[in-house]
């Protein structure tokens, strides 16, 4: 031994070894829970600011499902793309921004057409804010879960 302690070696091994499946599931679960919780706050604020309480996208079952499903699908897309591109640290944020911008299209259409009963400016702004929350939390969660 050259004076390197076993705890130093363990620290090196833990930072360079791939994350375990359990770690990744834990990080992604925490990210989903955080996003749903923040979105619940946004929905409550929107209703307090005048959005109708019966506006379906601001109800827990709807926004929770619309948070969980995209985050899970996004994780698999993140992994697939990050394995195939030359510079994932540069490419992934660009893809995430493009996806976020595209996610606003239905919200703008909702505001213009009112195809969901109860759609108001406050409600649609809340939905757009929820998209930003989901994307932000997802990207942070994906990076933490994917860190090697």
Annotation keywords:
148 residues, mainly alpha, 5 helices, elongated
Short description:
By secondary structure, this protein is an all-alpha fold.
Blueprint of the fold:
Elements: H1 6-16, H2 21-48, H3 60-84, H4 88-113, H5 121-146
Shape: elongated
- Please trace the helix and strand order, writing H or E for each element: HHHHH
Question: Into which percentage range does the β-strand content fall?
Answer: under 5%
Q: Helical proportion?
A: over 70%
Largest sheet, strands/sense/barrel: none
Question: What radius of gyration results from the CA coordinates?
Answer: 19 Å
Q: What is the arithmetic mean of pLDDT?
A: 90
As residue ranges, the low-confidence spans are 5-14
Cα-to-Cα separation, first versus last residue: 27 Å
Please indicate the count of domains.
1
Strand tally = 0
Number of helices: 5
Please state the structural category.
mainly alpha
């Amino acid at each position: 031994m050259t004076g390197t302690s076993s705890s130093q070696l363990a620290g090196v091994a833990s930072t360079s070894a791939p994350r375990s499946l359990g770690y990744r599931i834990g990080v992604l679960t925490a990210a989903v829970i955080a996003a749903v919780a923040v979105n619940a706050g946004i929905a409550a604020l929107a209703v307090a600011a005048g959005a109708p309480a019966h506006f379906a996208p601001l109800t827990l079952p709807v926004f929770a499902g619309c948070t969980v499903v995209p985050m899970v699908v996004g994780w698999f897309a993140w992994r697939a793309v990050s394995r195939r591109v030359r510079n994932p640290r540069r490419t992934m944020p660009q893809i995430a921004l493009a996806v976020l911008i595209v996610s606003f299209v239905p919200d703008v259409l909702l505001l213009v057409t009112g195809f969901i009963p109860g759609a108001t400016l406050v409600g649609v702004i809340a939905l757009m804010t929820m998209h930003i929350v989901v994307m932000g939390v997802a990207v942070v969660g994906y990076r933490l879960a994917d860190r090697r």
